[in-house]
Amino acid sequence: MHACKGETSMIMEISPELVREQELKTAAGPEIRLQSQDPGPVHVSRSFMTVSPSGVAGDARGAGAAKGKTILDACAQEISTLLKSNTMWAEDGRE
């Protein structure tokens, strides 16, 4: 997704001036597949404008700064846990 509820919420938390809140009520675009979901042998890059002229893919209408804070806090916690673990620093990637 791009400019979906999660991404928009995170930006609303860290840089709210970048979000045009007056446009949120119509901020819904097409659903897009993630590259990892594409079963084809080759991924061909294309302009995002061919996917969504508005720049929105997914649905940002439920976005909010509080949701963004929750997402960012969870990401920070998981990154911290990973960095503190032996898994990250083992030569073969295992503890």
At a glance:
With 95 residues, the chain is an all-alpha fold. It has helices at residues 5-14, 65-84. It has one domain (5-89).
**Poorly predicted segments:** none
In total, how many domains does the architecture comprise? 1
Number of helices: 2
Q: Please give the share of residues in helix.
A: 25-40%
Estimate what percentage of residues fall within beta strands.
under 5%
User: What is the overall silhouette?
Assistant: flat
Average predicted confidence as pLDDT: 83
Tally of DSSP β-strands: 0
Amino-to-carboxy terminus distance: 33 Å
Given helix and strand content, the structural type is mainly alpha
How much is the radius of gyration in Å?
17 Å
Q: How would a crystallographer describe the biggest sheet? A: none
- SSE order: HH
Give the SSE map.
Layout: H1 5-14, H2 65-84
Detailed description of the structure:
It is built from 2 helices and no strands. The protein is mainly α and 95 residues long.
Identify the notable features of this structure and list them briefly.
mainly alpha; 95 residues; flat
